Amino acid sequence: MTQREPNRRETLLGLAAVGATACLPGAATADIDSLKARAERKGLLFGCAVTSRELRSEPALREAVLRDCNALVATNEMKWGVIEPARGRRVYAGADWLVDFATEHRLTMRGHTAVWHQNPPLWVPNALREPGGRALLEEHVRAVVGRYRGRIAQWDVVNEAIFHKDRQPGALRNSPFLQAFGEGYIADAFRVAREADPTAKLYYNDFAFESSEVSHEERRRDVLPLLESLRRQNLVDGIGLQAHLQVGDPFDPRRYRRFLSDLADIGLDIMLTEFDVADRRLEADTAARDRKVADYARAYLDVALDESAVKGLLTWGLSDRNTWLNADQWRRKDGVPARPLPYDDAMDRKPLWHAIAGSLDAAPVRKA
Ligand code: XIL
C-alpha cells in the first residue's frame, strides 16, 4: 500500500487536533506536526544518535526523541572499544539498554558500528596480527550482530573503509584491518554479519561525499566499485552517507543528485546517517548563524530527499548540548559552542528543525 499526502481538510483537522491536545500529558507523542509525523507521511525514517546516559538523564531530550523520532542509532555504545575493552569480556549494558528502549517505543534501531578503524579496543591491533587474528574480528561481528538478531533493522557493518590518500589498492584506508588481512576483510565482515542476522539490512557507512570539492568528488568515484562488488555478492543492502555538512563547503545539487542515482542504480537503499551542520566558518552571532545553518541544510536535504532510494535521515545528536563538534579537534576558534543540530541547549527548536521539517514536507512519498 502506498502512502499519500493528507488533503487540505485532513491537514486542517490535524492542526486543530494538535491545538486541542497540546496541553494534555503525553500529547507530544501524537503531534502531527512533529518530524516523526512528517517523515511517516512520506514513508521515511527520521531519528538521531543518542547514548543511554543522555536518554536516562535528560528528560526533555527523551521527550523530544519520543515526539520527533521513529528511529535511533547508538552514538558509541555498539562500538567495539565500548563492548570489549578487555579481551574476551564483552559488556553490552549500554547497547542492551538502547535496544530495549527502541523496542519498547517501537523505534527502528540502527546498529553502529561493527567494524571501524577508530574505535577498536587498545588490545586489538596487536591481537589481529597474531595467528588466528582474523577470527577475532569475525567473532566480534558475529557476537554483536548476532546478539540483536531480529531487533536491529539496519547495521553499519563497516564504517569509513575508504580513504584514497592512504594510496592502497581499491582506495581503501590503511586501517589495522587492511594491514592484517588485506582487502577481503570487508566482504568477510559482511558475510559474517549476514549469517549472524539474515533479517537486518546491512550497510556500508562513510563520510565526505557531499560537497563539490575535489576530494569529495574522488570519494564518490572511489566508493562505487566497492559497493558494486559487495552488491554483486549480495552482501550489502545499503549505503549510509554520514552527511556531516559544513556551511561554506561548495555544494553542486546536480552532481550530488547524480551520485544518489548512481547508488540507487546499484540497487542500494540510502540512509543519511550522521547529519549535522558545522558552523565553524560562520560569525558568532546566534541568529545569523542559525539562519545560515538552516538554509544550507535545506538546500542539501531538498536534493537528498528527492531520491526515493533515500529511506531516512538521522541527525548526529538531537540537541546542540550533545554535539560531538565541541571536542577539541573540531571546536570553533573563538570558543563559542557549535550549533549544528535541530534543538538548542535548552531543547528549543531552532531554524534547523524547521528546515528539516520543510524538506520532509517537500519530499516525494516513498512507495512501500
Ligand atoms: C563520534 C562520537 O560522536 C563521539 O562521541 C566519539 O568520541 C567519537 O565518535 N563518524 C562516525 C561516528 O561514524 O561514529 C563518530 O561518532 C563521528 C564520525
What fraction of residues sit in β-strands? 5-15%
Summarize the biggest pleated sheet.
8 strands, parallel, barrel
If you consult CATH, what is the topology? TIM Barrel
Heterogens: (3S,4R)-3-hydroxy-2-oxopiperidin-4-yl beta-D-xylopyranoside
Q: What does the overall shape look like? A: globular
Spatial gap, N to C terminus: 6 Å
Mean pLDDT, rounded to whole units? 93
Question: Helical percent range?
Answer: 40-55%
Give the helix/strand class: alpha/beta
* Residue windows where pLDDT falls under 50 for at least 5 positions: 1-29
Plain-language structure description:
The chain starts with 7 loop residues before the first helix and ends in a 6-residue tail after the last helix. An eight-stranded parallel barrel has the order 1-2-3-4-5-6-8-9, surrounded by six helices. Helix 2 (35-41) runs parallel beside helix 14 (351-362), helix 8 runs parallel beside helix 10 and helix 13 (286-304) packs parallel to helix 14 (351-362). It has 14 helices and nine strands. The protein is of the alpha/beta class and 368 residues long. The radius of gyration is 20 Å and the shape is globular. 42% of the residues are buried. Residues 1-29 have low confidence and may be disordered. It has helices at residues 8-21, 35-41, 52-57, 59-68, 80-83, 93-104, 124-129, 133-147, 176-181, 184-196, 214-232, 253-265, 286-304, 351-362, and strands at 45-50, 71-74, 108-116, 154-159, 201-206, 238-241, 244-246, 269-278, 310-315. The protein has one domain (31-362): Glycosidases (TIM Barrel, Alpha-Beta Barrel). (3S,4R)-3-hydroxy-2-oxopiperidin-4-yl beta-D-xylopyranoside (XIL) is lined by residues 75-76, 159, 242, 274, 324.
